[in-house]
Amino acid sequence: MRAVRRFTVRASLPESLSGLGDLATNLRWTWHPPTRDLFASMDAELFNRVRDPLRMLTALPPTRLDELAVDEAFLAHAREAVADLDRYLAEPRWYQKQDGTDLPPAVAYFSMEFGVTEALPNYSGGLGVLAGDHLKAASDLGVPMIGVGLLYRAGYFRQALSLDGWQVEHYPVIDPNAFPLELLTDGGEPVLVDVAMPAGRTLHAQIWKARVGRIPLLLLDTDTEANDEDLRAVTDRLYGGDADHRIRQEILSGIGGFRAVRRYCELTGHPQPKVFHTNEGHAGFLGLERAREIIQTDGLAFDEALPAVRAGTVFTTHTPVSAGIDRFPVDLVQRYFADGRLVPDVDPRRVLALGAEDNPGLFNMAHMGLRLAQRANGVSALHGRVSRRMFSRLWPGFDFDEVPVSSVTNGVHGPTWVARELSALLGRNHEELGLDGTQGKPLRDGVSDEQLWALRRELREKLVAEVRRRVRAAWMQRGASALELGWTDTVFDPDVLTVGFARRVPTYKRLTLMLRDPERLRALLLDERRPIQLVVAGKSHPADEGGKQLIQQIVRFVDDPEVRRRIVFLPDYDMSMARYLYRGSDVWLNTPVRQLEACGTSGMKSALNGGLNLSIRDGWWDECYDGSNGWAIPTADGVTDPLRRDELEAAALYDLLGHQIAPLFYDRDAGGVPGGWLSMVWHTLESLGPRVQASRMVREYVESGYLPASRMVAEATGDGYRGALSLADYRTKLDVSWPRVRIFDTELLVEDAAPMVTGTEVIIRARIDLAGLEPSEVDVQAVVGKVGDGDELTDPVTVGMSGDGIGAFAARLKLPHPGSIGYTVRVLPKHRLLATPAELARVVHA
């Protein structure tokens, strides 16, 4: 018989074990080994199988719970764990110890996916795992954050392989009651947020809360009887469906997510957020809802509310290419906003203007994100430069370096990803490592190369065991019989150099670059003296046929009986598999096309475990590679033929593996220890440890994003929105005057006929018509720099010019460079609520 409906009943715990419920439902257990040890002590075999305390409590026989309820040793251990969690949730941490009252009372962090743990499968890959690590680090630091996203009833797909190596997707439906989630209720009834839909319909969403340490994570779910059947499916799958499905998800995420935050804070007393951080542009519509709230509550016009909205918004872009940005047909956006029900009192024409781009038929979510945020950033130093160039058309007249998009390099949550065996060996509590930017005593104190090498082999051995288990399971799933799988017991060797490669499989990440010369790869894998073994994993988006073909190519290669003991493809890559790979791989391989990897954090997780990176200098590796913490694969810069580029870079990869990496790994002393290899491992742990921590990343966001945003919100909204009204009036004045601002005569003078040498003081003068603007309302600048054949200024030095009140401006400066020098004069807007002179995208040049 088949059930007509399925649901989950949670275990009823004896009173003495009631604290276990809080421990199991607060996801701090995912990065807190003592809590995991407590649950493992209840039934080690069961816990190792399910790796989820909540599922374990449901699966334990009632007789075992009754035994534990009177086991004084266990109860003492449980009380200690509950007390430790209570302390963690209440004690002042880094954020509470900061000086000043300007820190925001709360920050709302919006993301389309959150990868906190495989026990809550609400993520697809790097973006979601980064968001999960962001919340965990914020919790450890005490940052008062609220996470906001969607709950996908089918999550992201589970991956299998067909017999011919083609990716097969399936979507297991989840029951939220089976996960560490609780439904937000009011008076016993589910709290619903409503979002208007076309044709007079309404989309309703209930709110599930996950506890990520100190951080509430709110996940909106449309699978409720309050919705029509098609609307119940809005949150069915992550990154699924057509454009209409996606825009519904993004409207719900932004507008519905903002309303969910407001409702949650009202019900619980949590401080209302002052700053809103959007992780990519998916939730960008929230800015419209914030404007709507100000308009209806405080009586401002849209242009008056906009400065307050922008002041409190931080926007992070993860996209290094325009093709990766979410775009919707303009007529589709009009369909949702035209009747005015979705965000009342916000003119639909203003909505469309916020997402305008070169193609008038498309609405650009990243452009809207940038126009609604006063602070924006990329996710590595290189990605920041790429983003400034990519979005420069929004700021015409400014050099690329002046485009107001900064960078905060991503980080990873050490306590989640570092092997506890390594933490124990180094005497480090990785929950605290990196929180204050220091490491304390040197890592090597009291630890020998022999001990570190023995641990690295132990972690590699655990990876080998997991590889064998998964390879066997994958072949069984593909239709093989157990009788023909005896060879899987000899797959991989715990004493062989192990290279890991695991990530999403879009074409730019070049999963198959390693296959460019199959015979050369085969020779590296099967070398009798210095063999290499390679573990590969990754999922392709269900609609990405090119990515699926890459997976099939690699699977067909690894299926060859000659090489299958040295190279494997493991299907269904997730956080659980990732931990084995990061901890057990000696080398982490990354081969994207340069400047197409915004950051990439998998190599950071490997580095924290003593893995050495072998990567194209892209994303984070471009700024962190120092020549001694891994290897940089040379890039074929200037080669426009992609096939030729791949050929050259693959050859460089083979050379590094065969001539540098393998020889160093197998060069052993009399005790069998590779001293040269371990010197690089030690250097990696010491130099990269603090730099790649998510705690460092979140501190940077607090200091360069949340804190200045909070101050600017106070300026904009204080005294009856005095600052916002002032900026709105100023922008209106600029609309009239700016087109008539003119720079007439300019000249550069040298006093006393001094020689033109570096350091000579010069005077630059200009006559300027400000068209009714006051000198205090503009920033007049003299810019001096090197010039080439095209008269473009490089290495510019900028000096403010002062005026005499009747249009004459002058500045003194010393000549900064030898050689061919040029200068110009320019006028920029100036207002105390502007974060940068380029913010309004207005400039007048001489």
TrEMBL record:
Cofactor(s) listed: pyridoxal 5'-phosphate
EC numbers: 2.4.1.1
Stored InterPro entries: Agluc_phsphrylas (IPR011834), Glyco_trans_35 (IPR000811), Glycogen/Maltodextrin_Phosph (IPR052182), Glycogen_phosphorylase_DUF3417 (IPR024517), Pyridoxal_P_attach_site (IPR035090)
Listed Pfam families: DUF3417 (PF11897), Phosphorylase (PF00343)
Residue ranges of every copy of the DUF3417 domain listed in the record: 13-120
SUPFAM superfamilies: UDP-Glycosyltransferase/glycogen phosphorylase
UniProt keyword list: Allosteric enzyme, Carbohydrate metabolism, Glycosyltransferase, Pyridoxal phosphate, Transferase
Keyword RNA-binding: no
Reaction it catalyzes: [(1->4)-alpha-D-glucosyl](n) + phosphate = [(1->4)-alpha-D-glucosyl](n-1) + alpha-D-glucose 1-phosphate
Keyword Glycosyltransferase assigned: yes
EC top class named in words: transferase
The family this protein is said to belong to: Belongs to the glycogen phosphorylase family.
Summary of the function given for this chain in its UniProt record: Phosphorylase is an important allosteric enzyme in carbohydrate metabolism. Enzymes from different sources differ in their regulatory mechanisms and in their natural substrates. However, all known phosphorylases share catalytic and structural properties.
NCBIfam families per record: more_P_ylases
Name used for this protein in its record: glycogen phosphorylase
Organism: Amycolatopsis speibonae
